[in-house]
Task: structure prediction
Amino acid sequence: MVKSVTLRVLALLLALALAGCGSQLDPDTVAGTTLAGSDAVDQGDGTFVDGTDGSVDGGADGADGIDDGSADDLGGDDGSGPSTGDTDTDGDGDTDSPPAVSGPKASCDGFKNGPGITDTTITVGNSSDISGPVPGLFEAAQDATKAFVAYFNATGDICGRKLVLKTYDSRTDAGADQQAYAAACDEVFAMIGSNSAFDSGGAAAAESCGLPDVRAATLTADRTNCSTCFGAQSVNSHEVTNAVPDYGLAHFKDASQHAAFLYLNAGASSENAQIQAKAYEMRGMHFDYIAGIDVAEFNYAPFVQQLKDRDIKWVSFTGSYQADVRLLQAMQQQDYRPDVYMTDPTIYVSDFVESGGSAAEGVTVYTNFVPFEEAASSKEMSLYLSWLQQVKPGAEPTFFGTFAWSAARLFTEQAFKLGGKLTRESLVAALRGVADWTANGLHAPQQVGSKSTGDCFRFLTLEDGDWKPSFGTKYSCPGITKA
Result:
């Protein structure tokens, strides 16, 4: 039961931080929910990608005797720090793929080797939650980063240098994240595509050595405030997109005036829910009922009864997809269905659809990236899906993987433009100027440099087990409300 509760807490925190509502993880919750312990650092497999065939082979010996990156070697018994072994990924890849970087090539004159850079390679790192209380929590982010590095090395280089990817396992633990980034300061040029639930741990380490950290997203205030850290998905804790309330006011006006906001109750989630509801009301919605559900609560019937008694027509919910399923099943059992059930893109996974069954029909999610069902309309999404399967056949694309791919592309584009002027300092300066980043249309514009919440979202509704566009496929970009 402890593991189940922990999973729901983590999923809640991630939903709050990543769903575009501007909420972030609470340090007290971080301290109180991790089960990994302070010795939770471990190595990833260490991926070297030099662009010949796209395969992933075992790597060289790691610092703690890890020699092949296999599952049996992910023990991390002594917590002495991250260890890595470089894994070769040589390959042609998809011969139809366009170059990973294009446009005018910057001069390479004056290029100087430095931390993580040799005459032939640039070593980058990725630290994501692979093991810990919820195994594989952010493995998709690391897989997507591997996929992009394979793609990049098959189609291009930066001043004659290929990329080497060194992987770390932050193990869903702030201490592990700190140790990974302390090691990365000396081992890599920059970090790309990382995603960790408790990412506050490595913030000071990254900043202290000037390590560029181009993440899938930042999940804690400490990481957002890190001067060398940036998220491909931009989030500010008190900026809430207007897209959701405007969707309600435009298409479900009556329901938007009789709304409820339910959330899993952990850490700062109560405050965050109040902020989100306040912002929605400032935009014109009205909430008759706001309530938190304890993470250990399995009986959702009383909450559904409250919704029925208050004649609630719009339900917003933030939590794990398992909690969404539990609430939806309780609604179905009590023969209650609101006009709108709105939730965030963290439930946009096959497990939600399969476990929710008929109870999940009609659920709407707000999302800020090209739906996987529409990959044919997006060259960049098609590249992500294609290269993901080359690096890890059978892997499922995810929200987190999408933004990790975006982060890896952002790094290579900025590095390519800098050419011979590439240093850690010049890269960080360039990242501070990035605005309206879309990764070639992979997702809605993100304000990477200013770290403001991106305001553009669109909507999907589950119909007959498939996600379908709700009121069009274009993003709605009505600005943000500060609450």
In short: Residues 1-9, 16-92 have pLDDT under 50 and may be disordered.
